[in-house]
């Protein structure tokens, strides 16, 4: 049927090729889209509540409910748990990207963007930047609140930055998993639901909230490969002092591994949908 | 091959092939599993005109629009919009088009102004240019008062207007409107129609999908009728109307008892009137001369008319007329491909 004797199509004005957006234009697009994502947060302040209060809630809950039992007293527990929570900021950042992406796909907004002459990646990068701002708020709240409760930085501010860098590196690996989830799931609630199923076992089956030595053998086997254990151990060492190299390398290896496996899958899926 | 082509009653060429058509489609196909959403479609839209794509749900109208606006890649065939190939030059093509879909694609959490400003910025206007263009379009679409409110507080009509405004920011050469008035009340629908006409006056080419014959009649100069992913009729609005028999006439007598007398009176003049079951009578498919004759005949015979109404054929009637005509052509009609039979 396609070989019907219909008149041939007029040749395009320019023979072939397709001009992609310039880097300069892309930066402008990313700026405009980041602004859009930030304005969405401003328009929906409830979405910022968890960024502000979850760190406080978690800290209070764990320090005063479990602190004494786990570490003898709550002061020791603050020094134990808070550095581990730094690492998890990257995790919640990654998960928020997947949910946000899914929201854009389920509304018609993504279709609008896709019919515009902008690079596909601008939408993703802008989402990441805006969510990073949210994470930065979480992080500042967490650090200030923990210091009010008595957290002491035994090393240097550079080490604190290194801790955050490590958290971000791990978050970068997890972003691909989250993106894939965001595009595979039918709605934002499903993304959050499945995201929780992945995150909660990782969070609690790690050395973040309690030392692993009292856990049963099968669980210790899990915690020893769990990237969040490595992340928590490295963060603790960076802030309290101690051997950093091994856990830090393990966390970074996880980040690289997740990126190698999931980035191509997520990008392929994104291209297919866009 | 020729038999297959014969089922498409292409009554008059919509464009000359040498003429610069804003949209050219040849043999376009898209399959979703067993479903042939588009099954070898040819179509031309001349620069500066409005093409109405008419068809029921699932006929392939939306798939066509999504392919032409680079949202979906075709499985076969070619499409060129504003001189750019949808598959090979999507970035260039996107500079020339605007799309308003069935679902308003505006950001619910942002205000009307912010939505338009964002799109201006994404189309490489500078901050001042984007602001000016947003304000200009808000004014034109009567949204200035609501400009600062989040769009989730807008009514359906306001949202659709904002969506149209968003499609207009880049002054597109070709505008795709996918069922632009579905779900709108008559007043809002008229507003949208007025805007579409204004866009065409400014030189945009419009491809509009609709389920309503009336909408196509109001806006389009050419029509393409889709069913099951295929073009089943194409041509000028007038030609197509003639083909499906034009408008029907409904008359209600001033005195109910005179209904039979009226029908007899019209029958004597060769017009087949039938009772419409609601105390009136219907004369299907009348042209202007017949309409005048009916009124004159009833007037001279002294039969009082309480109400008289002419009506365009509905989409159902258009389909019946077209498919009915086809079934009289032996061998030219393949077995109908219904979804049930291929599933």
Polypeptide structure, described:
Chain B: Its main location: membrane. Chain B: Its EC number is 7.6.2.2. Chain B: This is ABC-type xenobiotic transporter. Chain B: Residues 23-253 form the ABC transporter domain. Chain B: Keywords: Antibiotic resistance, ATP-binding, Cell membrane, Membrane, Nucleotide-binding, Translocase, Transport. Chain A is mainly α and 274 residues long. Chain A has one domain (24-273). In chain A, 78% of the residues lie in helices and 0% in strands. Chain A has ten helices and no strands. Chain A has helices spanning 23-43, 46-71, 74-106, 109-114, 120-149, 157-184, 188-204, 217-225, 227-240, 245-273. In chain A, α1 packs across α5 (120-149). The longest helix of chain A has 33 residues, at 74-106. By secondary structure, chain B is an alpha/beta fold. Chain B has 13 helices and 14 strands. In chain B, the strands form three sheets. In chain B, strands 6-7-8-3-9-10 form a six-stranded mixed β-sheet, sandwiched between helices. Chain B has a four-stranded antiparallel β-sheet with strand order 2-1-4-5. In chain B, β9 and β10 (230-236) form a beta hairpin. In chain B, α4 packs across α5 (127-140) and α6 packs parallel to α7. Mean pLDDT of chain B is 82; it is low at 1-18 and 326-343. Classes of the chains: A mainly alpha (274), B alpha/beta (343). The interface between A and B is large, with 41 and 51 residues.
Q: Give the CATH architecture of the largest domain in chain B.
A: 3-Layer(aba) Sandwich
Q: What is the β-strand count of chain A?
A: 0
> How many helical stretches of chain A?
10
Number of helices of chain B: 13
Main sheet: strand order of chain B: 6-7-8-3-9-10
Structural class of chain B: alpha/beta
What share of the residues of chain A lie within helices? over 70%
- For the record, the CATH class of the largest domain in chain B is Alpha Beta
Number of domains in the coordinates of chain B?
2
Taken as a percent bin, the fraction of beta residues of chain A is under 5%
Order of helices and strands of chain A: HHHHHHHHHH
What characteristic shape of chain A results from the CA principal axes? globular
Overall SS class of chain A: mainly alpha
* Mean model confidence by pLDDT of chain A: 84
Number of domains of chain A: 1
Oligomer: heterodimer
Radius of gyration of chain A from CA coordinates: 22 Å
N-to-C CA distance of chain A: 28 Å
Transmembrane segments (chain A): 48-71, 77-97, 160-181, 193-212, 248-268
Keywords (chain A): Antibiotic resistance, Cell membrane, Membrane, Transmembrane, Transmembrane helix, Transport
Membrane topology (chain A): Multi-pass membrane protein
Domain ABC transmembrane type-2 (chain A): 46-273
């Amino acid at each position: 049927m396609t070989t019907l004797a219909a008149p041939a199509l007029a040749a395009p004005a320019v023979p072939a090729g397709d001009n992609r957006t310039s880097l300069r234009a892309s930066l402008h697009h990313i700026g405009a889209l980041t602004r859009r994502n930030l304005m969405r947060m401003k328009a929906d302040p409830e979405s910022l509540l968890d960024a502000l209060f979850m760190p406080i809630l978690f800290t209070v809950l764990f320090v005063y409910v479990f602190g004494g039992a786990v570490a003898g007293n709550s002061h020791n527990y603050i020094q134990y748990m808070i550095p581990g929570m730094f690492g998890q900021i990257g995790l919640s950042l990654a998960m928020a990207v997947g949910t946000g992406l899914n929201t854009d796909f389920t509304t018609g907004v993504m279709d609008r963007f896709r019919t515009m002459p902008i690079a596909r990646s601008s939408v993703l990068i802008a989402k990441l930047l805006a969510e990073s701002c949210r994470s930065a708020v979480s992080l500042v709240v967490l650090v200030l609140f923990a210091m009010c409760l008595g957290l002491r930085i035994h090393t240097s501010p550079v080490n604190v930055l290194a801790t955050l860098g490590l958290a971000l590196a791990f978050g970068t690996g997890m972003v691909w998993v989250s993106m894939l989830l965001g595009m595979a799931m039918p709605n934002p609630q499903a993304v959050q639901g499945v995201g929780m199923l992945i995150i909660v076992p990782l969070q609690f089956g790690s050395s973040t909230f309690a030392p692993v030595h009292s856990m049963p053998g099968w669980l210790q086997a899990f915690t020893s490969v769990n990237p969040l254990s490595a992340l928590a151990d490295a963060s603790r060492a960076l802030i309290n002092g101690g051997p950093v190299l091994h856990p830090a390398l393990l966390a970074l290896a996880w980040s690289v591994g997740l990126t190698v496996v999931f980035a191509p899958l997520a990008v392929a899926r994104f291209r297919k949908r866009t | 091959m020729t038999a297959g082509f014969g089922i498409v009653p292409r009554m008059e060429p919509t464009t000359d092939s040498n003429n610069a058509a804003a949209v050219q489609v040849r043999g376009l196909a898209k399959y979703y599993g067993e479903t042939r959403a588009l099954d070898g479609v040819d179509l031309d839209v001349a620069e500066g005109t409005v093409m109405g794509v008419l068809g029921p749900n699932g006929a392939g109208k939306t798939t066509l629009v999504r392919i032409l606006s680079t949202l979906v890649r075709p499985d076969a065939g070619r499409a060129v919009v504003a001189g750019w190939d949808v598959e090979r030059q999507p970035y260039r093509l996107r500079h020339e088009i605007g799309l308003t879909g069935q679902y308003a694609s505006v950001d619910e959490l942002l205000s009307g102004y912010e939505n338009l400003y964002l799109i201006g910025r994404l189309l490489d206007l500078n901050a001042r240019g984007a602001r000016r263009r947003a304000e200009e379009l808000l004014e034109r679409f009567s949204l200035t008062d609501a400009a600062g409110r989040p769009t989730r507080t807008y009514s359906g009509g306001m949202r659709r207007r904002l969506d149209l405004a968003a499609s207009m920011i880049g002054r597109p050469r070709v505008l795709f409107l996918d069922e632009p008035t579905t779900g709108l009340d008559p007043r809002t629908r008229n507003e949208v129609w007025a805007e579409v006409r204004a866009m065409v006056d400014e030189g945009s080419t419009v491809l509009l999908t609709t389920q309503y014959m009336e909408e196509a009649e109001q806006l389009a100069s050419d029509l393409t009728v889709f069913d099951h992913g295929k073009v089943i009729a194409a041509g000028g609005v007038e030609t197509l109307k003639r083909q499906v028999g034009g408008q029907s006439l409904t008359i209600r007598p001033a005195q109910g008892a005179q209904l039979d007398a009226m029908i007899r009176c019209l029958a004597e003049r060769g017009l087949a009137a039938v009772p419409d079951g609601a105390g009136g009578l219907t004369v299907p498919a009348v042209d202007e001369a017949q309409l005048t004759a009916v009124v004159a005949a009833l007037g001279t015979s002294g039969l009082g008319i309480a109400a008289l109404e002419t009506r365009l054929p509905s989409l159902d009637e258009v389909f019946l007329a077209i498919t009915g005509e086809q079934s009289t052509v032996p061998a030219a009609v393949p077995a109908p491909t219904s979804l049930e039979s291929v599933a």
